[in-house]
Amino acid sequence: MAAYIIVDVKVTDPNTYQGYAKLVPATVEAYGGKFIVRGGQAENLEGDWQPNRVVVLEFESVAQAKAWWNSDEYREPKALRQSASQAQMIVVEGV
């Protein structure tokens, strides 16, 4: 079953975050993932959520999504992202 990592990112250091953005695609692809949304314009339709930068990644399973998130390949980019932003992140099963 497909799985999605959904992230709302508030970038606090744009220069460092740009370095992260360059490194991360290869790590996602190495785990069979792909970007569905990568920071496009977001519009609130209901509730009080005011998203910042929204990212959605698709993987073949929750296990594969977590394998990527915990991987050696993603360790360095993750540290860059965490130093340059604040994020809310979930993984959810698809249908």
Can you give me a brief rundown of this structure?
The chain is of the alpha+beta class and 95 residues long.
Tally of individual helices: 3
Mean pLDDT: 97
Largest sheet: 4 strands, antiparallel
- Main sheet strand line-up: 2-3-1-4
Textual characterization of the structure:
- The protein is α+β, with helices and mostly antiparallel strands and 95 residues long.
- The protein has one domain (3-43, 51-93): 2-Layer Sandwich (Alpha-Beta Plaits), CATH 3.30.70.
- It has three helices and four strands; from the N terminus they run βαββααβ.
- The chain has a four-stranded antiparallel sheet with strand order 2-3-1-4.
- It is globular, with a radius of gyration of 13 Å.
How is this fold's topology laid out?
Blueprint: E1 3-11, H1 14-30, E2 34-38, E3 53-59, H2 62-69, H3 72-84, E4 85-93
Antiparallel strand pairs: 1-3, 1-4, 2-3
Helix pairs in contact: 1-3
Attribute tags:
Alpha-Beta Plaits, 4 strands, 4-stranded antiparallel sheet, 95 residues, single chain, alpha+beta, globular
